[in-house]
Each structure stands twice: as C-alpha cells, then as structure tokens.
Design goal:
6 strands; 3 helices; six-stranded mixed sheet
C-alpha cells in the first residue's frame, strides 16, 4: 500500500499528485504522478528517505512519473550529493526529460545512475 500526496487544485480542476509505495524486492520506492511546484514537498520527503536509508544502492522506480520539473531534478541532485561515499540512487526508467536535464546540467554525477531496464 502506498502513500498518495495530493496537491491543491491546479488549473482547470486538475489536481497534481504523487503516489509513493515501497518496492517489495529491493530498497527503494515506486513513484507515480508528477513532480512539479505543487508536489515538491512530497518529492523532497521521498528524497530525504533515500538519503536516510543505510543502503549502498537506493532505487527509485519512476516509470509512471509523467513529469519532473528542473527544481525537482535539482532536489534529486542535492539529495544524491548528500549520500555518503560509494552510495548512489538508481533511477529505474525515469522520464526521458529528467534524464536529459540530468545529463545537461549535472553530467558525470556518479551518485545518480539511470537504468532503463
């Protein structure tokens, strides 16, 4: 069972949301929805959990994330930079735009690994 974060109503009655549930087979979370201004607080809680965990590899399964804004990408990078030596966050099937933003603004950041499998 996951946690569903609802943001205040957006334009045209659309309510952005971010749903988070634990991954049963490994350390990490499955995230669905969108990361934008309305859901940043929930996204930062997800990232804080990744930093607090004591695992060398923490997985974020993002195949059902439809959007991550640049501020969300920046929060991800900031969290990854707070990880201890040798630790990393693996993004499993992130949105293509997130992958491009990471490559453009933070190339070679070893604390974040992208997996498309």
């Amino acid at each position: 069972m996951g946690i569903r974060y609802l943001a205040p109503s957006g334009t045209a009655g659309v309510v952005p949301e971010l749903t988070v549930s634990p991954l049963p087979e490994r350390s990490g979370l499955r995230v669905t929805g969108e990361v934008g201004l309305a859901t940043h607080e929930a996204w930062e809680r997800v990232l804080e959990q990744a930093v607090r965990e004591d695992e060398d590899i923490y997985y974020l399964e993002l195949s059902s994330v439809t959007f991550v804004d640049v501020a969300g990408a920046g929060a991800l990078v900031a969290a990854a930079q707070r990880l201890g030596d040798g630790r990393r966050i693996v993004l499993d099937r992130p949105p293509g735009a997130l992958q491009r933003v990471l490559e453009m603004f933070w190339p070679g950041l070893s604390a974040i690994e992208v997996s498309m499998s």
